[in-house]
């Protein structure tokens, strides 16, 4: 892959994340109608799978029982997915597009959506189904319980119709561009060691010099220096520096969220 411009190519990093930082979401809700519209859309698609509306949980007052639900996988996963998709749509409305996307663990589904593998409806069905399955699992449960969850999740994935990635898609499972295996349910339920350093090395050799993490924080971006070749200079765009991103080259205000 050739270099594109003085900063090279751009990778969007979709991390597994943790419970979303409420400050991040509130800031964007107040300042960016495109983000608010996108978040409402994704939350509405996920709500049928959850006991409480996702947006209410994401922005519940600190210290309340509702806010504590974000510590449960059944809410934290959908919340991070919704946040990442809304951020992605916001960036696209500003004319900021990736050359390649990377998905880590639970972030693989948002990365796959961004790459065009799944439609919003199918991605939300997958994320919501997994949340419902996890909510019904004993906590803590034996390994066989998790195996049962993954088996049931795989059966749901088998009903979807994923397409070939329209953008180069790399995951921490393969540490290489993903192709036809996106159509295999086993690919999405596979448990494997995280191969972040290999994936970052691959992207760097492919010309990536700008790294933008989507999600509640910048954990992956902070790990990059340990994964890049020694002495490598990289341009970092942090996920929470929204004002700088909006005023960057090619950015415009945008009034609608791309689907």
From TrEMBL:
Read off the Pfam families from this record. Answer: Acyl_transf_1 (PF00698)
Domain of life of the source: Bacteria
Against PANTHER family, the record matches this protein to: FATTY ACID SYNTHASE, INACTIVE PHENOLPHTHIOCEROL SYNTHESIS POLYKETIDE SYNTHASE TYPE I PKS1-RELATED
> One GO biological process from the UniProt record?
fatty acid biosynthetic process
Keyword S-adenosyl-L-methionine assigned to the entry: answer is: no
Keyword Transferase (UniProt): yes
Residues annotated as domain Malonyl-CoA:ACP transacylase (MAT): 13-242
Name of the protein this chain belongs to? Malonyl-CoA:ACP transacylase (MAT) domain-containing protein
Key words of the record: Multifunctional enzyme, Transferase
Can you name one GO molecular function term for this protein? fatty acid synthase activity
């Amino acid at each position: 892959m050739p270099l594109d411009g003085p900063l090279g190519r751009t990778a969007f990093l979709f991390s597994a994340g943790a419970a979303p930082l409420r400050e991040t979401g509130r800031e964007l809700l107040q300042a960016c109608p495109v983000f608010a519209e996108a978040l409402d859309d994704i939350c509405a698609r996920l709500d049928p799978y959850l006991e409480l509306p996702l947006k209410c949980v994401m922005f519940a007052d600190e210290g309340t029982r509702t806010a504590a639900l974000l510590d449960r996988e059944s809410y934290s996963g959908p919340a991070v997915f919704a946040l990442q998709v809304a951020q992605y749509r916001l960036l696209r409305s500003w004319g900021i597009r990736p050359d390649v996307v990377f998905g880590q663990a639970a972030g693989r589904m948002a990365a796959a959506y961004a790459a065009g593998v799944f439609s919003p409806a199918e991605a939300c069905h997958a994320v919501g189904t997994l949340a419902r399955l996890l909510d019904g699992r004993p906590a803590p449960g034996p390994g066989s319980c998790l195996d049962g969850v993954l088996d049931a999740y795989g059966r749901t994935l088998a009903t979807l119709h994923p397409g070939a990635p329209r953008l180069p898609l790399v995951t921490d499972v393969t540490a290489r561009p993903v192709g036809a295996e996106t159509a295999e349910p086993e690919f999405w339920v596979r448990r494997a060691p995280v191969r972040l350093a290999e994936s970052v090395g691959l992207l760097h050799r492919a010309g990536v010099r700008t790294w933008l993490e989507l999600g509640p924080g910048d954990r992956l971006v902070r790990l990059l220096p340990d994964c890049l070749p020694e002495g490598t200079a990289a341009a970092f765009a942090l996920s929470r520096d929204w004002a700088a991103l909006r005023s960057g080259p090619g950015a415009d205000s945008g009034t609608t969220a791309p689907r």
